[in-house]
Amino acid sequence: MAATASSTTPVCAGDRLSASDAYEAGEGVYVRDGFLFAGVVGHKRIEPPPVEGGKPVLHVTTRGTQPLVPKPGDIVTVKITRVAQTTATALIVCVGRQALSTEFKGAIRQQDVRATEIDRVIMYDCFRPGDIVRAEVLSLGDARSYYLSTAKNELGVVYARSAAAGAPLVPTGWVTMQCPDTQTVEKRKVAKVGGGWGSATGK
Amino acid sequence: METSTSGSRVDGRGLEEFRTVFIKTRVLSQAKGSAYVEFGTSKVMVGVFGPRQSEVRLGFTDRGRVNCEVRFTSFSANKLAKLGQTQSDSLVAQAMQQALEPSVQLEKFPKAVFDVSAMVLEAGGSDLPVLITAASVALADAGVELYDLVPAVQLSKQAGQLLLDPSLEESGAEEGSLLVSLMPEPNEVTSLTVRGLWADSEMRDGLELALGACGQLKTAMREALLAAVEGEEDPAK
């Protein structure tokens, strides 16, 4: 297979890279007046056209991680900080697979917890403070926090500790998790990650 | 004291010559991006932190913000200054923020704030353009998406002559001063500050000199940033 054309020449923010009819703008590149410019300091990288007959994509990639802000549609990892009657407050600690340098506040509202039986959601049976939850960013929300949603099968609690013993709970169903030490069953909105749940019960 | 002869200055520089410029990035490990810049005896250190969440009292905004803070060390000037931010410090911070904000692609960071913390280690004259230049290098080092770097220069008008990058003594004796910060590639001025009386022809000459000097300065900024990038592995390989 032909190697992807790539250049090792580093470019600086503001450098003009090419005319915009030769390449599509990728990450770290912006368009102005018919030209592509680098937006960050890094290395140029050219990607083959995603569709047949399309233009190659030009990226500029930086060392380490770029500053990251949650965007609507992102899958984020959050830690629940407070549970109220209609809202669970959380701190966004990861966006996708990248940890954030500082946490952003998020809120999971009652109507966004699950896709079915929205009227009968009880927040305290879905989340507890300290739980680690996978969620999707619904919108920028308000000045206080992003609005998050767990209304999909693969979203929800991925890690929780038992209220009594403090041991990590094992998911046993869509809405239940069990303590391996005391066998106590606790209610959570469980995320379906990887395979099914433990051997004890089927779906 | 003998006055300087025409065409040269007390420190031996030509009229349109910078002081010695030294720029180094990645000097603070805890900052996302950082830069240390020297212009002769003006020494500043800048760190960029964030993005972090905006304060609630500032309300909702779908564009990010740049928050600048400047501190002068107590040993940075001849007279010992009291600690904390004085009124002139916040004016410097506001001018810095005004100069930097147009260059950052803030629409890519909704509801977020970048904190630019600057410290003047030695105030050797023309401190504000050094701060703007250093902050722009630090933002680029942090990986923040920019439209262009922002070099900034200052001129002094003295006895009918225009002096580029005035030192502390020259600033004290000036009749007028001109500060320009510029994005050289789109050729857009991000801030312009004029003090004193300037005739139209003097202003035109001053702007031409300043814009040319900004181009030179951007070359130095670019070299410092690319030197840091060249020192690491190409991530595509």
TrEMBL record, chain A:
Keywords: Cytoplasm, Exosome. InterPro entries: Csl4 (IPR039771), EXOSC1_C (IPR019495), Exosome_cplx_N_dom (IPR025721), NA-bd_OB-fold (IPR012340), S1_domain (IPR003029). It comes from the Eukaryota. It is found in: Nucleus, Nucleolus. GO terms for cellular component: cytoplasm; nuclear exosome (RNase complex); nucleolus. Pfam families: ECR1_N (PF14382), EXOSC1 (PF10447). GO terms for biological process: RNA processing. GO terms for molecular function: RNA binding. The keyword Metal-binding does not apply. This is Uncharacterized protein. It comes from Volvox reticuliferus.
TrEMBL record, chain B:
The keyword rRNA processing applies. Residues 17-145 form the Exoribonuclease phosphorolytic domain. Keywords: Cytoplasm, Exosome, Nucleus, RNA-binding, rRNA processing. GO terms for molecular function: RNA binding. InterPro entries: ExoRNase_PH_dom1, ExoRNase_PH_dom2_sf, PNPase/RNase_PH_dom_sf, Ribosomal_Su5_D2-typ_SF, RNase_PH. The keyword Nucleus applies. GO terms for biological process: nuclear mRNA surveillance; poly(A)-dependent snoRNA 3'-end processing; rRNA catabolic process; rRNA processing; U4 snRNA 3'-end processing. This is Exoribonuclease phosphorolytic domain-containing protein. It comes from Volvox reticuliferus. The lineage of its organism: Eukaryota, Viridiplantae, Chlorophyta, core chlorophytes, Chlorophyceae.
